[in-house]
Design goal:
about 230 residues; about 30% helix; 2 domains; alpha+beta; Immunoglobulin-like
Length: about 230
């Protein structure tokens, strides 16, 4: 390869295969790689231009190889930019999730579940069945003791409210606390019907240190996508 004296006194040419310096984090690696790539790319163009200007007419350079290297440089540079943009998008998404989660604090949220907290002698669940059914309900306290049972006709559909006043079958008033409802349903022909149970509870707090953020409802944690509805 023939070069001029001016080319030999220029800054040393850095090969496109030069190893990148190690980095302690992905962000510093991205910025270091981008800076090194830009320097290598400019040096490569300088070398290419110098060689083309001083090539031997009887033995021209293989331009296909240079073209392939140009394409490789451009592809790597585009990938680095894409990675930076994806990192930004992920950061924005996390911020949006945190903002949305904070907006739920103090509101009544509906989530899948069967355990709720009875307050002031009132506990509520939401049932759902696909067909008109008779639903057999059993309610147990936090120790697993059955405190109430009952059978009720429920029309087809979701959002069937079921409330309990905290009184057992013998009239005993049970104290406030956590209670779990178990429901089984059957249609008019006696065939089993699936029953969905949901609870409504106040979002008492949000843990933003988790990804995605966790909302605390009745002492249990839920993600935003598990929230089925907000009732103010």
């Amino acid at each position: 390869m023939t070069t001029t004296g001016a080319a030999t006194t220029a800054s040393p040419i850095v090969s496109g295969t030069t190893k990148q310096p190690a980095s302690s984090s992905s962000s510093s690696l991205s910025s270091t790689s981008g800076a090194t790539l830009a320097g290598n790319f400019q040096s490569f163009l300088t070398l290419l231009t110098t060689q083309l200007q001083n090539q031997n007419p009887l033995d021209p350079l293989d331009t296909n190889q240079f073209t392939q290297q140009l394409v490789q440089f451009a592809g790597v540079e585009q990938q680095l930019k894409t990675n930076d943009q994806l990192t930004t998008l992920v950061s924005l998404q996390k911020t949006a999730q945190s903002t949305q989660a904070l907006g739920f604090v103090g509101k009544n949220a509906m989530v899948d579940g069967s355990t709720t907290t009875m307050t002031n002698g009132a506990a509520n669940w939401i049932l759902g069945v696909k067909t008109n059914s008779t639903v057999n309900v059993s309610i147990a306290n936090s120790t697993g003791q059955t405190v109430f049972t009952g059978s009720y006709p429920v029309t087809a559909g979701d959002g069937q409210a079921f409330g309990w006043d905290g009184k057992g079958n013998d009239g005993t008033q049970w104290p406030d606390g956590k209670y779990t409802l178990t429901a089984q349903a059957a249609d008019g022909s006696g065939n089993s019907v699936a029953v969905s149970t949901e609870i409504v509870g106040v979002v008492s707090s949000v843990d933003l240190t988790q990804s995605p953020p966790l909302l605390s409802i009745n002492g249990k944690n839920y993600t935003v996508d598990q929230i089925k509805g907000i009732a103010g």
